[in-house]
């Protein structure tokens, strides 16, 4: 591996990306493959990296729940999860065993994405809407963890008038993820989000819930921009609809919203945000 | 003023506290007086401090909206507010004019309170329920600002079954503050909160909204403890009721909640949290 070239790994629920690149987020070469269990998924990444020479540093963007708070004794490990072969798996341990001298930085996938999408701002939130709903936050120029990490899909938005859907979250039913994730849309309307593009009612509900999500972020972490990515956010006009509903409900109250237009934006790097952010952890 | 003795000012909506003390939060002497406009309120504080000798440092805990983010050009000033005689008032400017060599640190009142209440934890949130509802956050050992600061009273909780109250927030009607502040309770039930202690329905609603607030904090800033203070939180068993409802709705999902019992607690320092926190800003 050339001097200055580093590695990134983005673990997704269904696919993993391993790459070599630079700490500014540039991907020089990447390999995408299906995510299986912890052992096998990392064996594949490690072999691919070995063929390119020993990396001096690896940034990891991991799906949750994962311990990314350095103050925790289980730092670098996957936490309790129903996903087979992941609970307790040590990501940092596996990488250090393969490459004893490597520096490893690990973050949630959504925090890595917010790093890639911050674009010079110090206070930004990122929401991704796909199989689940997750959120990452940069506040005061630093990625936010809290005790474990944000779980932005799991709070209760107010239901839209006329919405009696019970939701799909196995824990909470009609929390944000239960009402507005990709599987929620598919179950509610009997069609996948991409087949619903011409259905205004579907997007009325969807953008209403995401507008509430933005207002909840303003009330709590107070970003100056919210980036919304993920498959469900790709309908035409999606971000403008969320922003319009947000401004209607916020009633001019939040200085951070009043001072920033547009406030709700699509990602700059689309599907590359996670792997770019993984590399940028090493900057 | 003796060596090592510093000053703190806590600006409240109705009363202001000025004190001399120590950076560990110890108050040696304090003076409480009614808050009027910016000029007059600070003139009183400055005169009281002058009689005790020139302070070398002053910590200020300010009601919002106030610019506490050092990256903003209006740092240290009050932002746009309907409160007469405060919009644009420069707190840091007034103190520096009176005491040219003084070091000034300024925070929101709720962030100062979270500093006083953190008790060794790195990830803590503080909610106060009084005339309004505000929140402060310490995450990863640092007070969180975001672009301006949190406004935790102003998001939309799900309404309780049977609650058709329209709320009292002049901006948002039935946002959290509109539904659960002191004035909201008084308007809803026709009695002040302290006269409602024997009314279980009033506390069912109130603790349901605060339990949602805790869940929303877990989803966003993920604290390992939530401190709830302010007049309305002083009903017997209030914190235990909030925690019980929170655990019922969270369904074991949040590691930060599962790992910490009790999770919802009263303040250690009651009405002294703000002024103690103001002094602790100088540590």
The major β-sheet of chain A equals: 5 strands, mixed
Low-confidence stretches of chain A: none
- The secondary structure category of chain A is alpha/beta
Between the first and last Cα atoms of chain A, what is the distance in angstroms? 18 Å
* Average pLDDT taken over every residue of chain A: 95
Name of the CATH first level of the largest domain in chain A: Alpha Beta
- Regarding quaternary structure, how should these chains be classified? homodimer
- H-E string of chain A: EEEHEHEHEEEHHHEHHEH
Query: Helix fraction of chain A?
Result: 25-40%
Tell me the number of helical segments of chain A per DSSP (H or I, 4 or more residues long): 9
Which two chains have the most extensive interface, and how many residues on each?
A-B, 51 and 51 residues
Whole-number total of structural domains of chain A: 2
Task: Please state roughly what percent of the residues of chain A sit in beta strands, choosing from under 5%, 5-15%, 15-25%, 25-35%, 35-45% or over 45%.
Answer: 15-25%
């Amino acid at each position: 591996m050339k001097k200055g070239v580093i590695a990134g790994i983005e673990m997704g629920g269904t696919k993993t990306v391993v790459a070599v690149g630079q700490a500014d987020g540039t991907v020089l070469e990447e390999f995408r493959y299906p995510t299986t269990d912890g052992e096998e998924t990392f064996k594949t990444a490690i072999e691919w990296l070995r063929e390119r020479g020993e990396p001096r540093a690896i940034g990891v963007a991991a799906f949750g729940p994962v311990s990314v708070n350095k103050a925790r004794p289980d730092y670098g490990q996957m936490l309790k999860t129903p996903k087979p072969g992941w609970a307790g798996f040590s990501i940092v341990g596996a990488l250090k065993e393969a490459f004893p001298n490597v520096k490893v930085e690990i973050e949630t996938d959504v925090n890595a994405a917010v790093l890639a999408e911050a674009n010079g701002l110090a206070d930004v939130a990122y929401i991704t809407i796909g199989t689940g709903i997750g959120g990452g936050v940069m506040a005061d120029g630093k990625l936010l963890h809290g005790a474990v990490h944000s779980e932005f899909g799991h709070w209760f938005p107010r239901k839209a008038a006329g919405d009696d859907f019970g939701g799909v979250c196995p824990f909470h039913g009609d929390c944000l993820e239960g009402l507005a994730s990709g599987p929620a849309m598919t179950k509610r309307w009997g069609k996948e989000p991409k087949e619903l593009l011409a259905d205004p009612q579907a997007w009325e509900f969807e953008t209403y819930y995401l507008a509430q999500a933005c207002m909840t972020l303003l009330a709590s972490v107070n970003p100056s921009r919210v980036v919304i990515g993920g498959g469900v956010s790709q309908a035409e006009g999606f971000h403008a609809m969320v922003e319009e509903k947000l401004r209607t409900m916020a009633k001019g109250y939040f200085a951070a919203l009043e001072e920033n237009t547009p406030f709700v934006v699509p990602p700059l790097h689309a599907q590359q945000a996670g792997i770019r952010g993984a590399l940028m952890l090493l900057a």
